[in-house]
Amino acid sequence: MNDSLKGKTALVTGGTKGIGKAIADKLSNAGATVIISARTKPEESSSGHYFIGADLAKAESADLILSEIKAKYGKLDIIVNNAGSHLSPGGGYSILTDQDWDNEIQLNLMSAVRINKALLPLILENKTGVIINISMNPAIQPIWDMTMAYSAAKAALNAYSKALASELGSKGIRVNTVSPGLVKTPQMELAMEEMSKTLEITVEEATQSIMEKLGGVPLGRPANPEEVGDLVRFLVSEEASYITGAVYQIDGGSLSVV
């Protein structure tokens, strides 16, 4: 798929590390001009991606990103809404405050809603384009004592993505959702190290315990971020020109529902 995205301009939010960085690199390798956004500038300045500093949990960030893209590039073909994070504490409904719920919704749902609303007019000028919203498996299989508010926000993102795909299909814009399971990001590795120290077990045992908490992973390991990036690269390409309104699980088979 070399040069399959040549001439395309893509925005990847949360594109400085983990899944977002892998997606940005894969799109760039396929020939796209890639813009990344995050709260802090990436440590690696050699990525070649154009960086826009923005906190996507804040409403004004979408207009800031739009104005900078219009000024520098004047066009946009692809949006990958990857910015998101599990922010709230575990423990179930009684632990979660109104602020916890709002934090999850602002970052994991409204960041994508606002980016799409601000930037879609730029994409619509082309009469073709692609939006990928990055969800997570807990949207479909929540864990009550770990991901209640996060799962609710991501489930809302899934529903929003389906509705947006229905609205934009006739205008030449495709919208799909990619839903990873457990992914070996730097954030996950740090969490596993902390868990291993707390429980006095190995990192491998900590990782295995999380996989078991998720109901098991038939392939026996977390995903690499690059594997998620490969799926996104395919979905934004012309090879996926008849795919819209779909949710793609990439979880090693861990999701236990059909």
From TrEMBL:
SUPFAM superfamilies tied to this protein: NAD(P)-binding Rossmann-fold domains
Keywords: Oxidoreductase
InterPro entries for the chain: NAD(P)-bd_dom_sf, Sc_DH/Rdtase_CS, SDR_fam
Family: Belongs to the short-chain dehydrogenases/reductases (SDR) family.
Name of the protein in its database record: SDR family oxidoreductase
